[in-house]
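User: Predict the structure for this protein chain, please.
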Amino acid sequence: MQFYAYAVAVLLWLFMITYATLGGADFGGGIWNVLFFGRKEKEARGLIKGAIGPVWEANNVWLIYVVVGLYAGFPIVAATLANALFIPLTLALIGFVLRGASFAFRTSVTRIVTVKATWGTAFGIASLITPFLLGACAGAVASGKLPVYNGHGPVASWDAWLTPFAITIGLIALAVSATIAAVFLSVEAQRINDKELMNAFRMRAFIAGAVTALLGLVGLFLAPTEAPTLWQGMLNHGLWAVAITMAIGIATAFALFFRHYRLARVLIVMETFAFFGTWGIAQLPYILPPNLTIPDAASPPTTMRDFFFSALVGSLVLLPSLWFLFHVFKFQQAVPPVHEKEVKEA
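Assistant: Here is the predicted structure, written as structure tokens:
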């Protein structure tokens, strides 16, 4: 049944958008860990560490959902991506490992300042490289550079993810991650009532958002020739989604301008969902342009049905668990530190 094919595709797309939002905020924190300079540099990096530390590993569960779902529901797509984008996906995987290891070593293992700085630099570099590579892979898919004929696609392609369009999408992924993180960190700064950090991340959110908008215009300029399927789909049935995305982006800028940081956080999440949702709508009915549709790539109906309900039930268990995790580490009042002197006096 086509119903389950589209239902699983939508579910996986929602998982990917969720990862792009929450994982993007983590990557963006690493970006600002490298690019934040100024008088409050030490405090900013401490804020980033505190914001990312409790939740960054949990956010990767959404990426696991996407990978497992592709292999279960759309195996030909998973195989094509793994073969054609072997090089950037392998480099991105190395970036994941380096990023996790460097974050752990920087924060928990060593107390030597120079070693901590080295691991911090590695953490930042991995946070820059990995989202760019993932974005370039997304650009390769959207541009239709991965055609499938007789069940076979290209192998270890360089051309697909190094086109001007794919590189632009990679840069957009970096800019979006930096924007999300800056907005989220402005809320974290508000939580500890550090007005200087609030303003610093507010300004960086404006800058990253402006860069995202400019890169988006470049992508639109390149799309008619480099991503014709996506471009035609957007013109035919996606213009309303583009309008909504732009409206939410403007609303986010106004919320930041008037220093409504929590509202801006909600709006930037909505903006990310709208951005990726527009891409998905424009690409329909193709899961892998230019010639592989969602029903054609789907597993047998019984597999799709079983995976859909199991993933749905799993999500209903996962969502409250993640909410509780965020509630414990993000939304509770900070506990003041207890000093050794106070303990002895008590």
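The CA atoms of residues 196 and 294 lie 49 Å apart.
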